[in-house]
Amino acid sequence: MTEVSTDSPTRPDVAPPPGADPVAWAAEHRSEIRELVAVHGSVLVRGLELDGRERAAATVAAVLGEGGMAEREGFAPRDAHGPTGVYSSSHWPADQPMCMHHELSYAARAPRLLAFACVTPPASGGVTALADARAVLADLPAELVERFEREGWRLTRHYNPFVGIGWQDAFGGADRDEVERYCAENGVETHWDADGGLRTAQTRPAVVAHPETGERCWFNQIAFLNEWTMAPEVREFLTAEFGPEGLPFNTFYGDGTPLDRATVDLVNEVYERHTVREPWRRGDLLVVDNVRTAHSREPYRGEREIVVGLGEPFRP
């Protein structure tokens, strides 16, 4: 495996031999890829022959090994691509950003490892950008971090038939009793609407110790899933249609106090100061430590297909 120099301060690029079978190469070098991720927080493999969705999904599965993790509580629909833990990227409007976040950081079980394989790069934009969660934590105001460490952060969700993802897709089934059992076991409060919609709330840690190194990492979706990060026209429409408590998701301080726009903007500004961007190329394989490294998806034009893998579940 050849390591290539890169302009990124956080991550090396790796080049496989020309013509290498991507699935076999990924399986053979799985441990080396993970070692690089452990050191740098992410690694980009550039130049694999990912000539379709099936090959990309198999390559992602090879990186995950036996550690694939089924998604629960997703905030946007995905398509499953066969092996456990392998999906399409989230179906999110192309013209709307997915701000910096850590995958499933609001759930009781989250993946430690993410893998992204590029089948079709967009005509423009669509970068999966990265940010070092340790640097973000160090750069946030101490008093803000102290409050979130003391209280955690609270997420409310409204699963309804009209907007966002339905609870049946989010929880992987239509059995209400099973959903309530899952929620009770994982610290999620539930309330059923008369029309069959589901409202949930959960409080999670905003800062966690990395499972291997013990380093403190900013690990949440406080800014991304907050009302102030929505496009103003989207927020205004949803609030008018469903009321302030009917938004598909919103975030708060752990005691339930609303976040103001200035605080949410501040978190996103700190993320931006530590963001590293690399445009997608066909055949790219990006492997990320989901605890140490936040990621985002920027708006794009044209077709874009990225296969995503979730692996190595842990409890934050």
UniProtKB/TrEMBL annotation:
Pfam families: TauD (PF02668). This is TauD/TfdA family dioxygenase. It comes from Streptomyces zaomyceticus. The keyword Oxidoreductase applies. Keywords: Antibiotic biosynthesis, Dioxygenase, Iron, Oxidoreductase. Its cofactor is Fe(2+). It comes from the Bacteria. Residues 1-23 are annotated as: Disordered. One of its GO terms (molecular function) is dioxygenase activity. InterPro entries: AlphaKG_dependent_hydroxylases, TauD-like_sf, TauD/TfdA-like. Residues 18-307 form the TauD/TfdA-like domain.
